[in-house]
């Protein structure tokens, strides 16, 4: 019996190690010059890593311009210190789901992480200029709250960890969780002041959500949740006036 348990333990450890594969974004052709559009390269990397069972996609120092990206199961995005994912301001480069637009989006995914000391930057002022141009030309006629892209959107996802990265300068809400389970935000600065109604953390039908060591500085409310949502912990998470979110 001990021999069988030992073999099972080795197999479990080997399987875990197989999933813990590190990938460098540059190996997929990603360029950190702040001008090259990396959308296809980054998405191809995320898709490939997920298809192989999971792993970590590492971004090192530089500005990685990209359009909307879709998160996939078992993939960790590690934005190392000095790495910035910069939203391409074109209105049509954001992901459209359920009548809204998003920069980073995940739907029906699990075991997803975005970690590190880097930044996800929404470029709100540039995005607003592009949207206003489309509105003035009569091309975009939707209500403003549906065309302002949310920085990070999760729909029906579970076991998600957002740790360390800065979420900054969103055109719409910073983070939106819809029908999600077991999601944690920790050790972060969340800042968005360019739009009067830009909210920080928006929960709808989500449970098992925790916030720890957050500084939330947004033009709109720091935290909005409906009656169906459940936060299991809010620790050391404050707004600029020192009040808890």
TrEMBL record:
The keyword Signal applies. Coiled coil: none annotated. The keyword Signal applies. Keywords: Glycosidase, Hydrolase, Signal. It comes from Sphingobacterium hotanense. Belongs to the glycosyl hydrolase 28 family. It comes from the Bacteria. Residues 1-20 form the signal peptide. Pfam families: Glyco_hydro_28. This is Uncharacterized protein.
